[in-house]
């Protein structure tokens, strides 16, 4: 019988086969959903598809995302570090406060106050872990009393995820030179404690004149 069925249905397409013999085991998945609101059942319409989504175990974790980020060219204003932004990543929408940075030559992340006008930067913000290379959209929260403007503030792509990232801030220190010997200078009044001195050991110092 199985051989006869196979021979009879050989020239038919899949839709016609399923019309006559039904769907074969292994060609469908049966899912049981619990705690469904009563309105869902009473208003259920077969003509509208029901989309089911799932998460991998890692994607339920929260942490810091690092994104290659760029301000949208149609957005009038530049974006500022630690200003709230609504992110659209995959099917998720959440609000977070990004910290913008640029990568120096020694692969160190240096914090910047604002997004560059026509180039990419690196944005780091807290949110649910997302697979690498996922697209990111940044929206400004526009309330009804504000004048309508282009809502997409920035676009980007996820580069990496971690529990923490090290971002360094540029610091200007002023001191008074009191002893100069050719290419060596001794400064005073630059640090206020031994701990500060230890933190800056090995740092490069550059004057305004270069």
Automatic annotation (TrEMBL):
It comes from the Eukaryota. One of its GO terms (biological process) is endonucleolytic cleavage of tricistronic rRNA transcript (SSU-rRNA, 5.8S rRNA, LSU-rRNA). GO terms for molecular function: GTP binding; GTPase activity; U3 snoRNA binding. Signal peptide: none annotated. SMART domains: DUF663 (SM01362). One of its GO terms (cellular component) is 90S preribosome. Residues 1-210 form the Ribosome biogenesis protein BMS1/TSR1 C-terminal domain. PANTHER family: RIBOSOME BIOGENESIS PROTEIN (PTHR12858), RIBOSOME BIOGENESIS PROTEIN BMS1 HOMOLOG (PTHR12858:SF2). This is Ribosome biogenesis protein BMS1 homolog. The lineage of its organism: Eukaryota, Metazoa, Ecdysozoa, Arthropoda, Crustacea.
């Amino acid at each position: 019988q199985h051989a006869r069925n196979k021979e009879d249905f050989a020239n038919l397409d899949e839709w016609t086969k399923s019309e006559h013999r039904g769907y074969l085991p292994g060609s469908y998945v049966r899912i049981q959903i619990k705690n469904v609101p009563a309105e869902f059942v009473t208003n259920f319409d077969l003509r509208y598809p029901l989309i089911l989504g799932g998460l991998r175990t890692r994607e339920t974790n929260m942490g810091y995302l690092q994104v290659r980020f760029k301000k949208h060219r149609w957005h009038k204003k530049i974006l500022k570090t630690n200003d709230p932004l609504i992110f659209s990543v995959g099917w998720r929408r959440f609000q977070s406060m990004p910290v913008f940075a640029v990568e120096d030559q020694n692969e160190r992340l240096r914090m910047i106050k604002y997004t560059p006008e026509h180039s990419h930067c690196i944005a780091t913000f807290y949110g649910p872990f997302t697979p690498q290379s996922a697209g990111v959209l940044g929206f400004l929260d526009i309330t009804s009393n504000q004048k309508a403007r282009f809502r997409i503030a920035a676009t980007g792509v996820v580069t990496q995820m971690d529990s923490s990232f090290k971002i360094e801030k540029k610091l200007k220190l002023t001191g008074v030179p009191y002893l100069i010997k050719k290419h060596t200078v001794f400064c005073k009044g630059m640090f206020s404690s031994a701990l500060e001195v230890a933190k800056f050991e090995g740092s490069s110092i550059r004057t305004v004149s270069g």
